[in-house]
Structures are given as C-alpha cells and as structure tokens.
TrEMBL record:
Protein name: Probable ATP-dependent RNA helicase DDX4
GO annotations of cellular component type: cytoplasm
Molecular function in Gene Ontology: ATP binding; hydrolase activity; nucleic acid binding; RNA helicase activity
Residue span(s) of domain Helicase ATP-binding: 61-243
Statement: the UniProt record of this protein carries the keyword Transit peptide: no
One Pfam family here: DEAD
Annotated Helicase C-terminal domain residues: 268-418
Entry's family note: Belongs to the DEAD box helicase family. DDX4/VASA subfamily.
Signal sequence extent: none
Length: 463
C-alpha cells in the first residue's frame, strides 16, 4: 500500500469554508467512522494512511452514499479521488457485484479522466481501496494496443477507469455492456466537457444500453467549474444535483507561495537555469506551451548539469511512464511538461512549480501551480510573465485576483499591467453565493456554521 504523507498544514483544511447548494443535501460527516463504510474498506483506508477527512470528502462522501448526483469543486490536492471512490466502493461491497460472462463485461462504474497519467493514478487508488474484495478495477487508455486493453477487461471488470478515446473505441466495438452501469464519474470534469472531449462524452451517454441520467448516478469533480461548464454539465446530471464548493471556487491553494517574475522571452532560458541551479535537488515541475520546447529545455538543462526529463503527447506511452517514474523516485529532480501533466497528477514532495510559459487561461494556471502544495504540504510556484506578450497581458487581471484571493503579494508592476490590460476578467475565486449557476437555488455557507446544508466544520489527451 502506498502511504500518502500529509503536510504540516493539513489541519488548516478544517478552517476552509464550504458551501453546498441544492435541495435537501445530506448532513456532512466528521470522521470515516460516521460514514459506516464496510470493514474491509475501512481497513484499506487505514493501510493507505488516511486518518482524517478533507472538506471535500466530508461533504461529498455522504452525498454519494445518498445516491445523489454531484458537482464538486475543490482546490487541487484536496482528496477529490477518495471522495468519489470510497462511497462507490461502499455501495458495491454492500450490494454485491454480479458475475459476468467472459464474452461481455458489464461494469457497474465508469470513471473517465482526460489523461493517461491521471486515469492510471485513479485506477491505482481504486485497486488499493478494493484490495481483498471481489471488486475488480480495470484501466484502459490510448498509447497501448487495443488487444491489451480488451484482455484486461475480459479478466473481469466492475470499475472501468478510462480515457475518452479508448473508452469510446471499446464501446463501439461492443466489447463492454452498459446496461448494468450505476455510476458515471467525470474527473477533471471541466476539461471533460470542454477542450475537445465534449463530443466524446455525448457519444458515451448516448451509447446503446447506457442508462439515462435519471437511472444512473453521475458525479463530476474538478478544481475549476466555470459557468459555461456548469451549463454543459446539466445535460448529464439530474435536475436536483447538489453543488459542493470547498474554499474559493477555482482558487489557488494558499499553501502555495506564488511569485510572478517579469522576464522577456529571450531571458527565460537563463533565468530558468539560474533558478534550478539554485534549488539544487529539490523536486521541480516546469510547464511550457509546446512539446518542442519541452524537449529543448530538457536537453539544455541536462547540459547545465540539471537532471531533467520531459513528458508530453509525442512521447511513447512507455517513455512517459519512465519519465514519471524517474521523477517520482528521484532519478531526475526536474520534470518539464506540457498540459498533459498539469491536471490531477499527485506526485509527492513537489516543492516547486515553474511556469515558463503562462497560459492565457486562468483555470490552467490554477491547475499547474496545484502540482505543489498538496494535502497540506507547502510549495512554491514561480511564473515567468512577459510584459510585452499580449497573451500574458490578457490574463493579468485574473492573475491579480487569484493572487489576492490566496493572500499572496501582488507586485506593483503587475497591478499596473492589469490596470492597462484589455483582456477579459475571470470570475474565478468569486464568492460562494454566485458560484452555482442555477437561479433560485438555496445556498447556505458551511465552515463553522451548523445548518442543514453544511455541518462538518465544527471540529477539528491525450488518448
């Protein structure tokens, strides 16, 4: 069992405000014991080193156990995966899983995530929590031969973890049945419904045998839920779905120290080398826009005696897995990555994130810096900002708000850029009352207030 190490600020999660909107939400829980999970599952939770619930788990676990649809938004690194896996497994253990024929496996749960690395991580968690039970999680994703995926499924499949492309391919080949599906989970749901994956998700829910949204439980989790994504999500969710918001919606984790450095394109390489050589062996992720730049910088860093590797969509799946392993286990202390690694990956002890190329999407910025400062650990995120670059200037106003909401210092020069910028302003980090895009839905803030909506804070693609 992998034993996750929480950080010195883990107990700060008790101070994070939580908001639940929707009709008749079940009360939150304070401890794993209150969830009344099966004993085998409790043992596996203990073996994995889970002692205390995070806010998203306190509110989401009872909602899923109550068989309600859910849209949950919580900062990166806050335990969202366990928040849906544990109650799903609890239901399956209690209800039992039906034996399946060798020719056609019919999973009770399908979990979809945008990247191979993330879906494999979810699978490993599912396998860990299902240890010692008859529940069989399986993972399938692109970059491997289809027959290998099918062989895994034929050996038994109760929980299917998949990337969109490979999942749709297997469904179209009629290699799995959907009639027994009870749970559909979209992780990093904002990306699953946007950024090119939306059509695949519509194909999925309209596939032959797929239960209607009224006859299945649909769960969506992400660190960001812009209003446009909420609008798309309503096609997949029952009308009485619950919306859980932990902390500032889409906000950056306050455990991450955010530093913005003004540097032009021609000065970035030297500045990167200078910073990394100063950090020594501390584990650092560097984010860039293009695959070509990822490889170029990796080569440059190695020439400067900085142990680095890269991960992006043009690398073979085996190469990507090797790069992640080298980074996880300390063979390389720098990982240069494109967006493929920006979401969901949970790598322990990443002390630093450097955003070499700033995204023009503030949600992507939040996801990128969220690779550090996870589960109460502290981290530092350094962002290169080119004041002459129009794309960087476009995001300046939203960047100032993210920094302010996370109680970070906002440089005077950045405020000046933001004031003069013509770009749009993101509402990321907006107050709870305006988060759920549904009109006329009750909102009662959580935190330390006792209410029917929130009760748990009193105590302590690539395919």
């Amino acid at each position: 069992f992998a034993h996750y190490q929480t950080g010195i600020n883990f107990d700060k999660y008790d101070d994070i405000l939580t908001d639940v909107s929707g009709i008749n939400p079940p009360p939150a829980i304070l401890t794993f014991e209150e969830a009344n999970l099966p004993e085998t599952l409790n043992r596996n939770i203990s073996k994995a080193g889970y002692v205390k619930l995070t806010p998203v788990q306190k509110y989401s676990i009872p909602i899923v156990l109550a068989k309600r649809d859910l849209m949950a938004c919580a900062q990166t690194g806050s335990g969202k995966t366990a928040a849906f896996l544990l109650p799903i497994l609890a239901h399956m253990m209690r209800d039992g899983v039906a034996p399946h024929s060798l020719d056609l496996q019919e999973p009770e749960a399908i979990i979809v995530a945008p990247t191979r690395e993330l879906i494999n991580q979810i699978f490993l968690d599912a396998r860990k929590f299902a240890y010692g039970t008859c529940i069989k999680p399986v993972v399938v994703y692109g970059g491997t031969q289809t027959f290998h995926s099918l062989r895994q499924i034929y050996q038994g499949c109760n929980i299917l973890c998949a990337t969109p492309g490979r999942l749709i391919d297997i469904i179209k080949r009629e290699k799995i049945g959907l009639t027994k599906l009870r749970y559909l989970v979209l992780d990093e749901a904002d990306r699953m419904l946007d950024m090119g994956f939306g059509p695949d998700m519509k194909v999925l829910v309209n596939s032959p045998g797929m239960p209607s949204k009224e006859d299945r439980q649909t769960l969506m989790f992400s660190a960001t839920f812009p209003e446009r994504i909420q609008s798309l999500a309503k096609e997949f969710l029952k009308s009485d779905y619950l919306f859980v918001v932990v902390g500032q919606v889409g906000g950056a984790c306050s455990d991450v120290e955010q530093i913005i450095i003004p540097v032009g394109q021609h000065g970035k390489k030297d500045k990167l080398v200078e910073i990394l050589q100063g950090l020594g062996i501390e584990r650092t992720m560097v984010f860039v826009k293009t695959k070509k730049r990822a490889d170029y910088l990796t080569t440059l860093l190695c020439q400067e005696n900085v142990l680095a590797t890269s991960i992006h969509g043009d690398r073979l799946q085996k190469e990507r897995e090797e790069a992640l392993a080298d980074f996880r286990f300390g063979k390389c202390n720098v990982l240069v990555a494109t967006n493929v690694a920006a979401r969901g990956l949970d790598i322990e002890n990443v002390q630093h994130v450097i955003i070499y190329d700033l995204s023009d999407n503030i949600e992507e910025y939040v996801h990128r810096i969220g690779r550090t400062g996870r589960c109460g650990n502290v981290g530092k995120a350094i962002t290169f900002f080119d004041t002459d670059d129009n794309e960087d200037r476009t995001v300046a106003r939203s960047l100032v708000k993210v920094l302010s909401d996370a109680q970070q210092e906002v440089p005077a020069w950045l405020e000046e850029v933001a004031f003069s910028a013509s770009g749009t302003f993101s509402s990321i980090g907006s107050t709870f009352a305006s988060v759920d895009s549904r009109r006329g839905v009750s909102h009662v803030p959580g935190g330390h207030a006792q209410s029917a909506f929130a009760t748990a804070e009193d105590d302590a693609s690539w395919d």
